[in-house]
Amino acid sequence: MNRKVGAFAAALAVLAVTFCSAAWADWTLNMPRGVTTISPEIYRLHMLILWVCTVIGVGVFGAMIYAIVTFRKDKGAQPAKFTHNTKAEVIWTTIPALILIALAIPAAETLVKIEDTRDSELTIKVTGFQWGWHYDYIDEGVRFYSFLDRESNAARRLRSGIDPRSVENYLLNVDNPVVVPVDTKVRLLITAADVLHAWWVPQFAVKKDAIPGYVNEAWFTATQTGTFRGQCAELCGMDHGFMPIVVKVVTREEFDEWVAENAAPTMTRSN
Fold this sequence. Notes:
CATH topology of the largest domain: Immunoglobulin-like
Strand order of the largest sheet: 3-2-1-5-8
Shape: elongated
Structural class: alpha+beta
Helix content: 25-40%
Number of helices: 6
Strand content: 15-25%
Radius of gyration: 26 Å
Distance between the termini: 95 Å
Oligomer: single chain
Number of domains: 2
Number of strands: 10
CATH architecture of the largest domain: Sandwich
CATH class of the largest domain: Mainly Beta
CATH superfamily of the largest domain: Cupredoxins -  blue copper proteins
């Protein structure tokens, strides 16, 4: 008995340490509201459907528990003799259909907006490969590769002797971040050079597969400046966990300066 009590106390202690740790503070169950024009709408749609599903779940499981407790054999309950009830079948078919239609209307409206890349002001071609990203600013003449930063790359190696907790933004930092201007509609052309990848930045509500031989489209308009991080969200090989994405949202003036500094020189034809 004492051994069981001791094991139970140890389990409680482990749970307490887990839930109170600093790492737990960065871990959330829900999706973020985001920092783009479309992300709050996606968040509201998500919460609407979540609460509808919650209410349905409470109702269904509540009815099941009530039936199990109330109509037990030891209380003298007898099974019904009928085989079907047309009225009940119409009700439990009609109500779910109406719920699905009611949810489909706002979901379809949001999905149309997610896929609408018209009137974009900046186009970036994103190519995933094992294990990094290549970015091509179509109209600005800026092209560069983006890999896991050196500090994280050194700390991740076996027997490196480096404590990963000492590395800022461990596995979520890159050598060359994507730079975009605030309040600008950015169109992404996403593809891959070898295997499946996925470009995912949670704060932008953007997650698109990068497929070899195919170009996916996505867009976002960041509403505030700052640095936002994401990762490859498709299992693409042994170093899949080392393909972070970093996007710096800056003012238009800062973006123009960055383009001027990083644009490739224009090639001219000699006579």
